[in-house]
Design a protein that fits this description.
Helix content: 25-40%
Strand content: under 5%
Strand order of the largest sheet: 1-2
Number of helices: 3
Number of strands: 2
Number of domains: 2
Largest sheet: 2 strands, antiparallel
Order of helices and strands: HHEEH
């Protein structure tokens, strides 16, 4: 049986998932089937409300591109809305778009973010 800590939830980097699980007070050896409701609710709260400050900036050559993400056939490109979960709009590296770090990835992030924002503004 897989533990909560070692589970891999693809939208999140493994190290972030591990930190959120530990901050939720979930013991490293806790199995999903034994996860107590208060711990599960704390994990959900951390997943939906954690704010991560950005401190400073770096040069483009120091950034990394994340591979993988939401499969493109699951996204309506006119609104960037999920075809699987209506009401969820996706952009940037949440999507399965890979390219050389720099212009292509930046433009993909800016464009998909703009499309998602425009669609949400119309709601």
């Amino acid at each position: 049986m897989q533990t909560v800590l070692r589970a891999r939830w693809n939208p999140l980097p493994a190290r972030l998932w591990e930190q959120l699980v530990l901050q939720a007070g979930i013991a490293p050896d806790t199995q999903w089937t034994r996860l107590a409701k208060p711990e599960a609710l704390k994990l959900v709260s951390l997943l939906t409300a954690t704010e991560l400050p950005v401190d400073g900036k770096s040069m483009n050559k120091e950034e990394f591109v994340t591979c993988g993400g939401i499969p493109l056939p699951e996204v309506d490109f006119k609104t960037m809305e999920s075809r699987i979960v209506p009401g969820i709009h996706l952009a940037g590296e949440a999507l399965d778009i890979d390219g050389i770090t720099g212009g292509f990835n930046f433009q993909a992030a800016w464009t998909t973010g703009w499309l998602a924002g425009q669609a949400m503004a119309r709601l």
